[in-house]
Every structure is written in C-alpha cells, then in structure tokens.
Design brief:
Keywords: Carnitine biosynthesis, Dioxygenase, Iron, Metal-binding, Oxidoreductase. One of its GO terms (biological process) is carnitine biosynthetic process. GO terms for molecular function: 2-oxoglutarate-dependent dioxygenase activity; metal ion binding. This protein is of the alpha+beta class. It has three domains: about 55 residues, no CATH class; about 120 residues, 2-Layer Sandwich (NE0471 N-terminal domain-like), CATH 3.30.2020.30; about 260 residues, Double-stranded beta-helix, CATH 3.60.130. The strands form six sheets. Strands 7-8-18-11-20-9 form a six-stranded mixed sheet. A hairpin with a 4-residue loop joins strand 13 and strand 14. The longest helix is centred in the last third of the chain and has 18 residues. Bound molecules: zinc ion. The site of zinc ion has 6 residues, from loops.
Length: about 475
C-alpha cells in the first residue's frame, strides 16, 4: 500500500518513468541517494517531500540489506507476537539480542502507511484505543523493503474516533526494516537513544576541558551549518561552548540564541543584564562572589540553555567558573552510593521570594529519567528555601548534600575563564554549573547580557541538523 501511494505521489510530481526509478532507489539504496535524487527532481512538491522525509527518518538507522532477508515468525497463539530474526550479515544483527519480538497491537497501531499517518503532518489518523484487542495477522510477506502484514480486523469506532473505511478487515501495513529493527519496537534502550541522538554525555574535569574547550567563530556559527553543528555537538557532549567575535551590540545575544531556537521569556525579561546595581533583587546583579549554581530551579520547567554575552569587562575579578555536575554525580555514586540514593529521593526546596515575586518548587538534587535516557541535576544554594522534610530526614540530607558539594567545589573539576568583550558562553543550565568571582565595580565596568532557550529547542535543532548532515544536505 505504501509502495503504491509513493508511486502515485511521485508520478504526479515527476512522471511515471522517473517515478518508477525513484521508487526503485527508495527501496534499494541508502538514504542520501534517495534524498538527493528527490530534491533535485522536485523541490516543491509537498507529497514527495513528505514521503522522502518519512522514508529518510524510517531508514535513519541504516538502509536494509538486500540479501538475505530476515526470517519472520508469527505466533499462532493468542499473543500473535511477531518475531524477527535478522541474519548475521544484516546491518540490524545484534549479537546480544539476535531476535526482536514485536507485539501485534503495537504493530497495527504504528502502521506507517499514509492512511494511518498523515503524509504531510506526520500525525496519527487513529487513536490507539481503536485497535481491537483480538486483532491478528492474517498473512505476511517478507520483502526487501520491509515486512508486510495483512490484518484480520479493521479498527473499532471509539467515541469520535470512527472511520468506516478503516473498519474493514484486510488493511495492509508495510514496516521498513529500519523502523521495526532500528528505532522503536523491541530494540534495546541504548539503541533507541542512539537513533534519537541522545548519546551519553562526555564527563569532564579541568584538564579535559582545557584540552577540549571549543572557541567557535561567531560568523562560522551564524552563517554555516558546519559551524552550527560544531557548537551543538559540543553542547550535547560537554554541555558548553564559547563564541568569539560576537558583535558587542546590546541585543546581539538574541540573534545568537535564535540560531538554536526561540527565546524562553521569564519574569527577568526576554534578555537581562548582569551588572552591579544598587539594592539588587538578585545576587547576580551585585559585585559579590556568586558560587556554582543553576538558574531558575524554583520554576516548574527551568530553562535548559543559557547564553551570556560579554559586552564590557574592565574590572579586576569577575572570572567565570564552570563545573560538570554530571561528573560530580558519577563520583558521588562511585564513592558514596548511600548519599547518591538520598539525593535521588529527597526533595530540596527552591524559591525566589522578595517584594514582587513568590516562586517555589520542590525537587530532588539528582533526577535519573530512564524514560528519556536523561540525567538532570538541581543545585542552586542561593535559591534554596527552608527544607520541607520530616525532622528525622534532615541530618542524612545535609550530609549527602555536603558530600556532593565537596565534588562541585573541587578546583581540579572546574574550568575558569574571564570573559572578554565579544565573547559569549552557551551552556546547559541543568548540567553545567556556573559561578562568578567577586569584582571591584569602582575600577571599571562589567556588563553581560543573558537569555535562555529551552532544552527542547536545542535537541530539535541538534537532531534535524545531524540528519541534514547525514543526508548530505551540507
Ligand atoms: Zn495503515
């Protein structure tokens, strides 16, 4: 069904002969060839573009091998489980998990055909609750482009979710091998994370960061995809990079941030100024020493990225310090596992409370999120409120937090740099702690302009830029 639709769309766009050869390419070649051919033939036809995007993402984990094909077994019991066994020569063969088992409800629900997933919006056209619980595979074919299944039953009508055409039995689904063996389904977590480009961070200390620190040229970052990707990749791996040659214009940090994604507006404004002011509402706006911390932990969703652009810096002092909190988590877990457990389970209190505002949020210091293969740290001493714990839990928490702080404050785990005008630091606020030493405001001026971007915007840009690179678009 997918093959026929592809052919129809492509025929409208480029004529039948070309369409046929394109389709052959789609089926037999690797992603880059398909994309390049389709883009050259037709850059505007939406249907074709949508389809090649689909195919590209489905094949992102690697193109199917032509020979030999995986063997497939459909269980004849009530489970109807579909087991797929790629041969040793296949791209998808994994010695530690040679067989992938897929559930038939999951398969029907995730049919990728244009009747089930809208070709241009890429959104599902039915609800999971419509899949009959006793649906079964009535026949199957193992094809070079994927596994074709024919279904014993149509979809059910549930509430407003109804479609007479889909209530018929006999729907055919074609699952590209890259979809069922690569990115989803019965694949191991680490493989799924990899296809989402959510690979493990590289933990660093002072020695490593001195060697790996990225000073990226502003023009390269703003005007080339390669430059942008360099910065994004460093953010993913190390949680920070620096730009140099940024024009020292007041709102330039906005352009710098919007290269990644739209700004996160907070009650500090779209952008904010870090300079010493009288009667400051925030310790950042004084000349005092400001210890390692993260921003906005008293909000439900603290921003994932922070940018700080140096416009002026002629004062003695005011050095920036960065520290990889994930490194501190790793060391705590190895050396004091009981304290690691306490910080994973005990809520700390963060608040921002003065004349005009009252924000408040309780969260644990260490958050391990296996659903999203993510680690998050919450550490911000200046913004801690009184703990809201039973008295008997206090001592254990204070001991654990003190041990954690012991790693955070170790100079051999910190990277120091005094920002010069025209430099901008970009860092992951939920991973890399930042600090500033005290400075003397009577001996010159210090002015940084900052803003925030949500981590989702970064991940989005990183994945799409990586994919574009893989497809040979730059
Ligand atoms: Zn379908």
């Amino acid at each position: 069904m997918l093959r026929q639709t592809l052919l129809n769309h492509a025929t409208k766009a480029v004529g039948r002969t070309t369409a046929k050869s394109l389709l052959q390419n789609i089926v037999s070649s690797r992603t880059t060839v398909v994309t390049k051919t389709l883009l050259t033939k037709n850059t505007t036809f939406q249907g074709v573009r949508a389809i090649h995007t689909t195919r590209t993402s489905l094949f992102a984990a690697g193109a199917p091998d032509q020979h030999p094909l995986p063997t497939v077994n459909i269980a004849q019991d009530k489970s109807g489980a579909v087991t797929v066994h790629p041969p040793k020569e296949s791209n998808y063969y994994r010695p530690h998990q040679p067989t992938t088992t897929l559930n038939s409800l999951w398969l029907r629900d995730n049919c990728p055909c244009p009747d089930c997933i809208h070709p241009s919006t890429r959104q599902k056209l039915h609800a999971s609750s419509q899949v009959p619980l006793d649906i079964a595979v009535s026949s199957h074919r193992v094809l070079p482009e994927g596994l074709e299944l024919t279904w014993s039953k149509g979809l059910d009508d549930v509430g407003d979710w109804e479609d007479p055409a889909k209530a018929q039995s006999g729907h055919k689904s074609l699952y590209p091998w890259g979809m069922i063996l690569g990115s989803y389904g019965g694949t191991p977590t680490e493989h799924r994370a990899e296809t989402r480009m959510n690979h493990k961070p590289i933990l660093w200390d002072e020695t490593m960061m001195k060697e790996k620190v990225l000073w990226l040229d502003y023009d390269e970052y703003m005007n080339t995809n390669e430059g942008l990707l360099k910065g994004l990749k460093h953010l993913q791996d190390y949680g920070l990079f620096f730009l140099k040659g940024v024009p020292t214009k007041d709102q330039e940090v906005v352009n710098t941030a919007e290269r990644i994604g739209h700004l996160r507006h907070t009650f500090y404004g779209k952008t904010w100024d870090v300079k010493s002011v009288p009667n400051a509402k925030n310790v950042a706006y004084t000349n005092l020493n400001l210890g390692l911390h993260m921003d906005l932990l008293y909000m439900e969703a603290p921003p994932g990225l922070q940018l700080l652009h140096s416009l002026e810096n002629s004062v003695p002092g005011g050095t920036s310090i960065f520290m990889d909190s994930f490194k501190a988590v790793q060391l705590l877990k190895q050396e004091h596992p009981e304290d690691y457990e306490i910080l994973k389970t005990t809520p700390n209190t963060f608040h921002y409370r003065n004349a005009d505002n009252h924000l408040h949020y309780n969260r644990t210091t260490i958050v391990v999120d296996p659903m999203n293969d993510a680690l998050t740290v919450n550490y911000a001493p200046p913004f801690q409120g009184p703990l809201e714990l039973p008295a008997e839990q206090m001592a254990g928490f204070y001991r654990a937090l003190r041990r954690f702080a012991g790693y955070i404050e170790r100079p051999d785990l910190q990277f120091r740099h005094t920002m010069r005008p025209g430099e901008c630091m970009v860092f992951a606020n939920r991973r890399v702690l930042h600090a500033r030493t005290a400075f003397d405001p009577t001996k010159g001026n210090r002015h940084l302009k900052g803003c925030y971007v949500d981590l989702d915007m970064f991940k989005d840009k990183y994945r799409t830029t990586m994919l574009a690179k893989a497809e040979g678009k730059f």
